[in-house]
Amino acid sequence: MSPFPLRPILLVEDNPLDLDLTMRAFRKRRLANTIDVARDGEEAIAFMERWAADDPLPVVILLDLKLPKVDGLEVLRRYKEHSQWRSIPVIILTTSAEISDIRAAYQLGANSYIVKPVDFDKFLEVSKQIELYWLALNTPPQ
Amino acid sequence: MSSDLTTTPHVLAGQAREPSAQCHALLQALIENTAAAIFAIDRNYSYIAFNRLYATMMREHYGAEIAVGQSVWAYITGEPDRLTLKTECDRALQGEDRVVETSAASETAGAPPRRLSYHPLRSEGDVIGALVVIEDVTGRESLRAALQASEELLNRTSRIAKIGGWEFDARTFEGTWTAEVARIHDVDLAAGTRVALGVSFYQGESRARIEAAIHEAITCGAPYDVELEMITARGQRKWVRTIGQPVLQDGTVVKVQGTMQDISVRKQAEEDLRALNAQLEQRVAERTAQLAASEEKLETIFRLIPVGIVVIEAANGRILDANDAYLTLIGYPRDEVIGRISVELGLLAPEERAEIARLLRQNAAMLHAETVLQTRSGARIPVLVSIARAQLAEAPCLLAALYDITDRKQAEHELQTLNARLAAVNRELETFTYSVSHDLKAPLRGIDGYSRLLLEDYAERLDAEGRGFLHNIRRAATQMSRLIDDLLTYSRLERRSLIRGQVELADLVTTLVAERGAEITARGVCFTVQPPQVSVTAEAEGLTQALRNLLDNALKFTRDTPHAEIEIGGNETANSCILWVRDNGPGFDMKYHDRIFEIFQRLYRAEDYPGTGIGLAIARKAMTRMGGRIWAESEPGHGATFYIEVPK
Hints:
The complex is a heterodimer of chains A (142) and B (648).
Chain A: E1 9-12, H1 16-28, E2 35-38, H2 41-52, E3 60-63, H3 72-81, E4 90-94, H4 99-107, E5 112-115, H5 120-137
Parallel strand pairs in A: 1-2, 1-3, 3-4, 4-5
Helix pairs in contact in A: 1-5, 2-3
Chain B: H1 2-16, H2 21-32, E1 37-42, E2 47-50, H3 52-62, H4 81-93, E3 98-102, E4 114-123, E5 126-136, H5 138-160, E6 163-169, E7 174-177, H6 179-184, E8 193-194, H7 195-200, H8 204-220, E9 224-231, E10 237-249, E11 252-262, H9 264-304, E12 308-313, E13 319-322, H10 324-330, H11 350-362, E14 366-374, E15 380-392, E16 395-404, H12 406-457, H13 464-495, E17 500-504, H14 505-515, H15 517-523, E18 526-530, E19 535-539, H16 540-557, E20 565-572, E21 576-583, H17 615-625, E22 629-634, E23 640-647
Parallel strand pairs in B: 18-20
Antiparallel strand pairs in B: 1-2, 1-5, 3-4, 4-5, 6-7, 6-11, 7-8, 9-10, 10-11, 12-13, 12-16, 14-15, 15-16, 17-19, 20-21, 21-23, 22-23
């Protein structure tokens, strides 16, 4: 599939059900990449230290906006401010379709914004698209 | 004189028989010193005697030196002198006394007017000669002429001035009056008068007064000057002024003299003047009353008007006048305000005063400026002040009206507070709704996700019924998700502020149709689109939402219709634009027309036509907010047409 060594996907999600369903969705696709998980904004920010300590960079970050401890937009801002990690593609994956959130996210440098469907079938479709595009088609930053 | 002379010749003649030297000398002296020219002739017309004057006269006239014994005819040669002399002397010699007056015209030119008298000279009864006395009456003539002129002038004056003279004897009461007085009485002058007659022309009060005055005059010698009303002999009413002057002799009044003047004209004028004055006074009184009433009215209005009014002299800020409302407002009594310089009272704080002054400099008049008044007690009252300029009694003034707006300010403040609270509540609601929707959806995802996984991964362990249960679970979750979305949309419509913009209807419709393009093509719906090429000013999102909902409804309700037809069209009116979406679906009974636009109202069963029942409510709210409207026309079994009207 991908010519490059497999890099993990970082999933930032606080809701256990959502997390489980997302994992299952990707597993159905028999995703080879590892899925790293941050359960809140603080953990998500902490990943930057791990990357600094030579942990493998994610090929794409799926970021929910509604996070405890530190808000998703704040996490986004931190990622995108950082000279090293700003190039990692961030997909905002959230239920909010509020225009203010969409604007803020793109303003902060989000690479994509997807509204989470309630329908699981649709979600399966979304995850398939994500995989096809960001994991297969897109050339990640080096 | 003449009588003396007439008798004298008798005497002389009588004594002539024995004339003495004394007699002769006396006679000579008499003749010589008489102011008349005298000569005497005998029956033969010879001079017997003459005086110096005569001699001089003859010398001057005829250049003759006459002498006694000579005939007169020797000297008096011309006519008509000779004839006159002869005629008159003959008569005198007959014993007749004659007097002839000549005027200047009948004599020789240059001769003065004369009075010639011819007298017989007798001696013992016989006429022995004639005596002729010639008097130069020039003086008398001129005197008479002067007298006549004077009399004429007097009469004229008398007539013009309507004044005449009268007098009556205090004892006999007989009197005389001049022509004018008679004329005043409308009686004949010749009639003469007496007191009783004069008095009879008066009646009533006038009569009493004239009688009293006459009585006083006669008894006490008191002069009088009275104005009386009289009735003339012809019955005419006149006013006269009669002045009486008693004339005393030895302490008793012998007569009363006086004047009478017709003062009717003056009296009438006086009467007219009095009437005019009375009229004027009345008019003045009326006008004064009017002015007083007007002033009182204005005064009342000024005093009682519930707006504070103050009049200030523009030059120096001195308060000229103020009404009660103003005084109450500023909290000062009248005597501490009128006449004071307004700045002294400290009614405005420096910043406020500066602002007012600035506005006044900019504008001729100032309307409804808000400022703060500092009252005597130190309270600060928000007021509305309007100032106009006026010229009052030559001085430029400022008229200021003040209105206490404490209540209004308070209401404004309250409104602001309420608005702030409302905004806060709105924000709260927004956050609430946002969180709610997000948080409500999460479990739904769980429900849907796991039921799906169950279906997928545990299908073989479930029977048809079990699978059916899971389907129902999923459907319920989906429904709930849609409901949450719609509720969110509905509430967002309310919260969002109305942002109007230009919307090209044609573009809007095209976009919407494109959104549903896939379904339209897939189902083979016969789609007609004829949107009006109109641009309206509307809230774009709301309009889009409404139209989208109508389109979705049309698509939904024609799902079971064999040859589905959907039409989108519109037309333009003067003030608005009307769009419609027509379908040939099942339609509805018009009696439900109003219900279908209410929230959660559904006409069809959920399993037949799924939906949240909010779509039309959302559409209606969106349209109402922008001042438009939505309505429908339908007949069961004959499709439906939904209209929306957008104001332009």
